């Protein structure tokens, strides 16, 4: 059943979508103002349309996009509609990214914008162009991007004939940070503070001018934080121009698309891409916080690699992170979840047993042990692969165990077992006292086996 917050009354602009490729607007529900600015909706952003756009639009060059766009929808008919975004997300679950993009742009028109990071989310711009509708693009210039990314921004602007709306951090906040903590404080005390100043606050400002935004988030980008992204949702973290909870809608048109399919699309459509991709970068962010990854590594392992996997959201999509506090805030919540890793091949350690086991100098066998909480969606997501791992290791000299490290066991696990988040996976070598923490976000059987083989 949809939750109460899933249904929000939104003012939608209806009847104001211009017909693609029409040279004038005849819709009775639409009045253009000023009449001299005839926008061929859908032509904006298309290379072949630039001459038409220039002939038709009398606003200054620098204001072409926003000026004409605003003029085109200056007096739309406003219709009050109730939209249940949980239902809409379900309706669109099998829709193509192009259909989703078209729906989003049609619904929100100039009150929606694409968030562009300078990586493969350029696919969003291509999809927007293909809809034939006007669209806006914004980007966060943190001041720490790679030179290649700045050049790519320029290339994208020229390729699509658009102006990206750049958002910059507050200069006084950046000054205060780097004067007090230096240029690379994020390596010392985590990326959150720097990201808050350089990314989150500028994003908050950008979103306050919108009713909806479009992101390139995909479920396969991070098993830890992005595995449940819906196609469309009420933004759980930010507010839109009307203010208050529920005032901003977040569209994720490629949520269900794999990275492989995105790249097939980019190649097929001959879309320009950031040259960093050809140097081993998959996910691209700020220069000091992004690195190339090796074949087989997950793309998010190239971001903030010195930090725990679950902390790897920069705040732009912090609603993806379900913490112990948000997920485990009541007895009812925890009472209703099922136990995990119910395999005959997995031994459940009690607190006394794990304490004794962890203190052994030598063991009869090596062990791989998952520290988990039954309510944790990341633990739930890896249950099948961990059970399969246990089955494959049956009869070998590597045993498999689990320890429920939630509630009263959590302080112990955090202090003694290197746990920072659920799940934490540890390899106890039979010859070493201290366990080795599994460092990857890849939680498939082959990755687990490769880890074990490397340590055996
Ligand atoms: S990604 Fe790194 S450099 Fe960029 S804002 Fe975050 S911490 Fe700062």
From TrEMBL:
<dbReference type="InterPro" id="IPR004508">
    <property type="entry name" value="Thioredoxin-indep_APS_Rdtase"/>
</dbReference>
<dbReference type="InterPro" id="IPR004511">
    <property type="entry name" value="PAPS/APS_Rdtase"/>
</dbReference>
<dbReference type="GO" id="GO:0019379">
    <property type="term" value="P:sulfate assimilation, phosphoadenylyl sulfate reduction by phosphoadenylyl-sulfate reductase (thioredoxin)"/>
</dbReference>
<keyword id="KW-0411">Iron-sulfur</keyword>
<keyword id="KW-0963">Cytoplasm</keyword>
<dbReference type="InterPro" id="IPR017937">
    <property type="entry name" value="Thioredoxin_CS"/>
</dbReference>
<protein>
    <recommendedName>
        <fullName>Adenosine 5'-phosphosulfate reductase</fullName>
        <ecNumber>1.8.4.10</ecNumber>
    </recommendedName>
</protein>
<feature type="domain" description="Thioredoxin">
    <location>
        <begin position="331"/>
        <end position="456"/>
    </location>
</feature>
<keyword id="KW-0560">Oxidoreductase</keyword>
<dbReference type="InterPro" id="IPR002500">
    <property type="entry name" value="PAPS_reduct_dom"/>
</dbReference>
<dbReference type="Pfam" id="PF00085">
    <property type="entry name" value="Thioredoxin"/>
</dbReference>
<dbReference type="GO" id="GO:0046872">
    <property type="term" value="F:metal ion binding"/>
</dbReference>
<dbReference type="InterPro" id="IPR011798">
    <property type="entry name" value="APS_reductase"/>
</dbReference>
<dbReference type="InterPro" id="IPR013766">
    <property type="entry name" value="Thioredoxin_domain"/>
</dbReference>
<dbReference type="GO" id="GO:0043866">
    <property type="term" value="F:adenylyl-sulfate reductase (thioredoxin) activity"/>
</dbReference>
<keyword id="KW-0408">Iron</keyword>
<comment type="function">
    <text>Catalyzes the formation of sulfite from adenosine 5'-phosphosulfate (APS) using thioredoxin as an electron donor.</text>
</comment>
<keyword id="KW-0479">Metal-binding</keyword>
<dbReference type="Pfam" id="PF01507">
    <property type="entry name" value="PAPS_reduct"/>
</dbReference>
<dbReference type="GO" id="GO:0019344">
    <property type="term" value="P:cysteine biosynthetic process"/>
</dbReference>
<dbReference type="GO" id="GO:0051536">
    <property type="term" value="F:iron-sulfur cluster binding"/>
</dbReference>
<dbReference type="InterPro" id="IPR036249">
    <property type="entry name" value="Thioredoxin-like_sf"/>
</dbReference>
<comment type="pathway">
    <text>Sulfur metabolism; hydrogen sulfide biosynthesis; sulfite from sulfate.</text>
</comment>
<dbReference type="InterPro" id="IPR014729">
    <property type="entry name" value="Rossmann-like_a/b/a_fold"/>
</dbReference>
<dbReference type="GO" id="GO:0004604">
    <property type="term" value="F:phosphoadenylyl-sulfate reductase (thioredoxin) activity"/>
</dbReference>
